[in-house]
Amino acid sequence: MEGTMVQKAAEQAEYPLFIPFIMAGDPDPETTIDLALKLEEAGAHILELGIPYSDPLADGPLLQRSASRALQNEMSLRRAVELIPFMRQRGLTIPVIAFTYYNPVLQMGEKYFFDQLKENGGDGVLIPDLPYEESRDIHNMAAARGLVNITLVAPTSGGRIEKLAGEAEGFLYCVSSLGVTGTRDSFPPEAYSFIEKVKKNSSVPVAAGFGISTPAQVKSLDGVCDGVIVGSAIMKKVEENLERFKNPEEKSNALDAVKSFVSSLISS
Amino acid sequence: MKTMYPDEKGRYGNFGGKFVPETLMYALEELEEALDEAVQDQAFVDEYHQTLREYAGRPTALTYAERITHYLGGASVYLKREDLLHTGAHKLNNAIGQALLARRMGKKKIVAETGAGQHGVATATVCAAMGLECKVFMGEEDTRRQELNVFRMELLGAEVVPVHSGSKTLKDATNDAIRYWVANVEDTFYLIGSVVGPHPYPRMVRDFQRVIGDETREQTVQKTGSLPDAVFACVGGGSNAIGMFHPFLNDDVKLYGAEAAGEGMHTDNHAATINKGTKGVIHGSLTYLIQDENGQIIEPYSISAGLDYPGIGPEHAHLAESGRVTYEGVTDKEALDALTLLTKKEGILPAVESAHALHLAFQEAEKMSKEQTIVICLSGRGDKDVHSIKKFMEKEEQ
């Protein structure tokens, strides 16, 4: 069987995997499309397209604020999926993974959601509040359409690591430290040994996420795992540039500011 | 048919489960294991009941409401007096059970959420009594509305953390309590206040609250010679109701839950989760909830802070779907009328939450015969509500 797009992208990367997260609809839907393209230009391998949710349990204050802004712009799961064809039209080639809480998927209808995701050129899904035990149906629905369901493993997974890693497709999302999303000044030393342990158990590339925000942190993970996922730090750049994004004369500078930040992470 | 819910996945029919980030799965497994072990241990069970008896003041009375019964002219009305429990509401039953379990698990730090402050006060109380560290998350909006309860918790030695996220009320306090728990899961016990949240919470809280129904059963038989014909309770998350209903599920006893209809079921301002909600996931559990067509959760409304929760315990969702329990909406006004009636006729000021159950019960009692008996769970006392009752009545008069 032919591998999924995500699997190919993850396995064929020429340098450590870089997987950015952006929140659909923040600062506005049009800019989300621009940002996706800038991220590919900067060298991203896979894009996580975040879906704003009213009650994002796994997110820290920064992504909560980002989601609130996106919801004010009337962003929804359906609309976010419908942004993907516009990204493709403008030349986006990297795989797109919808990062969404479970409830919006339930409301849209699980099968309908996957049909739409496939039809609109999406490549997979990541549902942070759907643990292994509850994700069998989702897993099968994704697989039936050649899409991936990204598995997360956490520092508290303990005896679950083997089961989770065995299940993983595309890449395995390794939650580097306890807590919610958001930038952290440093990782606890045990994070590295944990990631190494996950790596040993995984047959797919392992990418570390949660709290990664500086070139130094990215560098420190080189050789420990296969790549990094960065979300809050990117949306922080977006937040810092909100005014510039609104101003047509400043917008391209704001996009470049995000791009150059991402480039600095990738080149480290 | 015996009810053996939840199943091993924590499902009550089509509801329940564990919809939480992977980080918490280990903590839930650890909790379930510790809980199963504790309830098998007679020493733990004895300590729980001893604490209920000697510290909380159980059993609570079953009061015959004679003047109300005559006034309504139908079934005999009995009140299960959880308002007489220490701290003034049923919440303490559960807080005691969970705090004892936390101590047994060696966890010295407790985190909890609270809306109006009743569960926060109950938790702060047991933590003071057991020497546990206590942190209570409370929506910023609620800390303003319930300033005295904030002070009360602080007096008890708890740290109250105002929550600025989302709509700054109970659902957001719950989100932040869970977020805090995710970050501190290794040494912290999350003491949830209702039969909501991921498995095994709904089952655990139910089992710590079923003492209400167990006592009611025994007391009713003692006083009347038989089981009641109907039992009533208010439902927010649904912990007093499930505790009351559970021992009667397999009997020929009609069960009624009163949801908050706020300004009316036909308006947008209600918290009638079962009657007006749709299936979805909130705080780790698949249940009914109040949400928009995109799956974004909507802030509910009720005069009663204890009932304005956008979800409902998954077991209630199941009992509604199976038809075993009838859930009906009761408006702010109907609840306050029932509250006034009980206060004037019996000299008992109920919590606004409990007054929702009173309205539904009075309505049914009138239609029933004099030989029949009903019991209403008076889940809490109304002292905390005097200010909002006064405000509501002044507004009504205008």
TrEMBL record, chain A:
UniProtKB keywords: Amino-acid biosynthesis, Aromatic amino acid biosynthesis, Lyase, Tryptophan biosynthesis
Family membership: Belongs to the TrpA family.
Keyword set includes Lyase: yes
GO molecular function: tryptophan synthase activity
Protein name (record): Tryptophan synthase alpha chain
Catalytic activity of the protein: (1S,2R)-1-C-(indol-3-yl)glycerol 3-phosphate + L-serine = D-glyceraldehyde 3-phosphate + L-tryptophan + H2O
InterPro entries: Aldolase_TIM (IPR013785), RibuloseP-bd_barrel (IPR011060), Trp_synthase_alpha_AS (IPR018204), Trp_synthase_suA (IPR002028)
Any one GO CC term of the record: cytosol
Domain of life assignment: Bacteria
This enzyme's EC code(s): 4.2.1.20
Gene symbol of the encoding locus: trpA
Function (record text): The alpha subunit is responsible for the aldol cleavage of indoleglycerol phosphate to indole and glyceraldehyde 3-phosphate.
UniProtKB/TrEMBL annotation, chain B:
Any one Pfam family match given in the protein's UniProt record, by short name: PALP
Catalysed reaction equations from the record: (1S,2R)-1-C-(indol-3-yl)glycerol 3-phosphate + L-serine = D-glyceraldehyde 3-phosphate + L-tryptophan + H2O
Keywords: Amino-acid biosynthesis, Aromatic amino acid biosynthesis, Lyase, Pyridoxal phosphate, Tryptophan biosynthesis
Top-rank EC class of the record's enzyme: lyase
Cofactor(s) listed: pyridoxal 5'-phosphate
Coiled-coil regions, chain positions: none
InterPro entries, per the entry: Trp_synth_b_CS, Trp_synth_beta, Trp_synth_beta/beta-like, TrpB-like_PALP, TrpB-like_PALP_sf
Pathway entry: Amino-acid biosynthesis; L-tryptophan biosynthesis; L-tryptophan from chorismate: step 5/5
Any one GO MF annotation of this record: tryptophan synthase activity
Domain of life: Bacteria
EC code: 4.2.1.20
Gene3D superfamilies per the UniProt record, alphabetical: 3.40.50.1100
GO cellular component, one term: cytoplasm
Residues where N6-(pyridoxal phosphate)lysine is found: K91
Residue stretches making up the Tryptophan synthase beta chain-like PALP domain: 56-380
Annotated family: Belongs to the TrpB family.
HAMAP family, sorted: Trp_synth_beta (MF_00133)
Alphabetical list of NCBIfam families matching this protein: trpB
Record note on quaternary structure: Tetramer of two alpha and two beta chains.
Role, per record: The beta subunit is responsible for the synthesis of L-tryptophan from indole and L-serine.
The protein's name in its UniProt record: Tryptophan synthase beta chain
Organism: Salibacterium qingdaonense
